[in-house]
Amino acid sequence: MKPAPFRYHAPKSIEEAVKTLGEVASEDGRVLAGGQSLVPIMAFRLARPAHLVDINGVEALRRLAVEDDRLCIGACVRHAVFHKPVVDGPLGNLLSTVVRHIGHYPIRTRGTFCGSIAHADPASEWCLLATALGAEMVAQSTRGTRTIPARDFFRGIMTTALDEDELLTQVRLPLLPADARFGFYEFSRRAGDFALGMALVTFLVHDGNVSDPRIAVGGIEAQPRRIAQAEQAIAGRAPDRAAFAAAAEAVTKAVDPLEDAITSAEYRRDLAGTVTRRALERAMA
Amino acid sequence: MTEKCEITLTINGCAHTIRVDPRRTLVDAIRDDCGQTGTHIGCEHGVCGACTVLLDGEPVRSCLMFAVQAEDRQIRTVEGLANGDELHPLQQAFIDHHGLQCGFCTPGFLMLAAGVLERDPNISDDDLLDLLASNLCRCTGYQNIIKAVRAAATQMGAR
Asked: What is the pLDDT of residues B126-137, one digit of tens each?
């Protein structure tokens, strides 16, 4: 189908974008960035926004820079940028590992990092990454600017802490320590398809034992989540098969999985454990 | 502006000044307003890749963009591949390796591959497979499409 009619706005600055969004938000105005989720939803007429505020012409939102040990990703930075590491060290490598799982290449040339975060699909790789690393989301409106930590940002399936008149102007990812290890594992039925389940882990190995573990799963529950029980199960232990199995077991016990017509909650529970174990194994590979 | 906008699309180097609704997708504008019907429309929601064109050299789904967003950008479609009567190496390879069956998906595959191979003809087999997984061929002629693109890549890399 064709998208329903809308009024089109093409601001040239963040201030103009925020002002326009403030004016049209209450009339079902939406932000258009890469459009790789919004436009299909409009084509299905599941969304019929009366206004689109196209931010692609706002140069300041294309910024990608390291500031205060954080990688700041502007709202118009596209997925494809991350194919090659954008920063030295583990974070750049982690981003380039994860990006290959997002849709297909022609989707990644248009879709944006921040768009995925604002869309908050449970199967979004970037939402999982933001949760695992403890990202900060910067939201701007005519009322001001605020920073929302990842743990408070994702509120459910395609639901976030953003108010309707707020523009997600950037996401800040903390750089990983130079000796940090990471592992990512995603299971989907076809290449480029939505994840049925995925896990992202980071940790350090000091004196032969795991420290500062972060273990998060995505695609399993309504929103990505760090699993504290799994992190406790592995902290201070040698990174071996027994520790990984204990962490995986803790994940299967802790999650409250989504269920749909073809995937039962039990299946997703098992899958959560499996993707966690495999992500941990990749971190040590 | 739900009213029509006047925009100029640059397709294969030719400027087309057209009046379109903001909701007009780029692929509809390319075909219906600019008359360049080599680009095909399949699913209209970004899954099949039949409408793939190059936007400033990068492959994009033209059903997932609005025409108004493509002003001041260089659009390249399948009509822009051949150099006069000389086919692009990808077009010749699709003929030589029987990469076309019904031909519906072909323009999308050609543009997908052209966008990547013209920059990186030395793409690995694994990366090439991953790239070609972007588009669908309902005749399921994938093996010959892979062979054709591999052969074209070798030829383009040798130039």
From this structure: 999 999 999 999
